[in-house]
Design brief:
Elements (H helix, E strand, L loop, with lengths): L7 E9 L16 H5 L5 H13 L7 E4 L3 H11 L9 E2 L17 H4 L7 E2 L17 H18 L4 E7 L1 H11 L18 E7 L9 E8 L4 H5 L2
Parallel strand pairs: 1-5, 2-3, 2-5, 3-4
Antiparallel strand pairs: 1-6, 6-7
Amino acid sequence: MSDQTPVLELEMYLIRHGESRGNVGLTGEAAPFDLREDPPLTVKGQLQAELLGQWLAGVDFAAVYASAMRRAVMTAEGLLTHQPTKRPLRLLPLLTEQGVSDDYEGQTVEALQALSLGCRMAEGFEAARRINGTPDQPDPVVLERAQAAIDYLRAHHAGGQKIAVVSHAAFLTYFIFRICGLKGQMPKFDIDLGNTGVTRVKFYRPGTNPFGDTVFAYINNTSHLAKMKAER
């Protein structure tokens, strides 16, 4: 066990988007293609995002990232609205939900700016495809994408910074299992990530924290939604 003082390198808040139209049964060929692939938040989902933003208002994030999908951008905007320091949303294609069709290129950045003013592609992705859903790919390929996202975020933020990462249930499950070291097939159990559920994970300088280099403070915290539950 190390006798060093733990050195926190990065703290990530992994957030699933709020309730979307896809979550409430938007299926079938009758729905337009872009709406099936990329549904926006419902009214309830927008309220969830607002409550999330209020709950995390005291955390001054160094950056907020989201996939370039409407439900993630709208959720991130609910968070950004309450931030003490105003920052633009960074769109990171690596965070796209798993399985989105290669035929869907996503909304333009200009269209997404109507949902989150000033949002822009993350550094190094300015000319990249906005959607990267790795459809029909085996688990190791998706886990590699999750690792690429982790590596990118850790390379761009250090010194104990806090960042928010808004993504999707399936991909965040890969993301969390990759943080835990999984490289092959996904395990035979799942993580129940609720809408706007928050998973907080801390990355320490290797060898400085006696409890491990990676520590989960909590997984799928939805306590900010208690008000909605009480009003049912």
